[in-house]
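Narrative summary of target 7.
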Amino acid sequence: MPGWDSYRAVYGAELRAAALEFVDHGWPVVEESATSLLLITGSALDVLEVPASCGREVCAQLRAAGAVVPVAATPTGSWWFPVATGGALTEELRETAGVALHTAGAPVLAPPSQVPDGWVHWRVAPALTGYRVPSPGLIVHAAADAVRWRADRELHPGAQRPAGAMAVGLRF
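Modeled conformation, tokenized:
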């Protein structure tokens, strides 16, 4: 079998295995093409999508709190978090470019989908959480904090902490 055909056969098997795993855990999925899957929101889960810089900060907050949640990344610079259904964005998040809450049957490209720019992949695989999704409030709150943190960094580039904080804990 030529190399490309071999690759496509193995990738097709991986894509089918991922689809079966989603279905086995109650995540509605459909095959969009021979190289991509779509998760369907609204019944078992919704998806909060944020820019990658915001997603990294959300993950940092969750790690600090000891929370592990599934996280996917796209090659186009967004990260998404599956959440329980029924959430809503805050006004602050609704006004933030690149932030969207996918609900009510909206399809979301799922790992391990291939797109022209690369692969949609898991940053934190859902198997690590037993396919449990967090409450939307947990992720929306962390995303709002991340947006505020990012805005503050843009207003004060290079500032990592207030100047007075540097003296705390120093002994002379």
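Confidence is low (pLDDT under 50) at residues 161-172.
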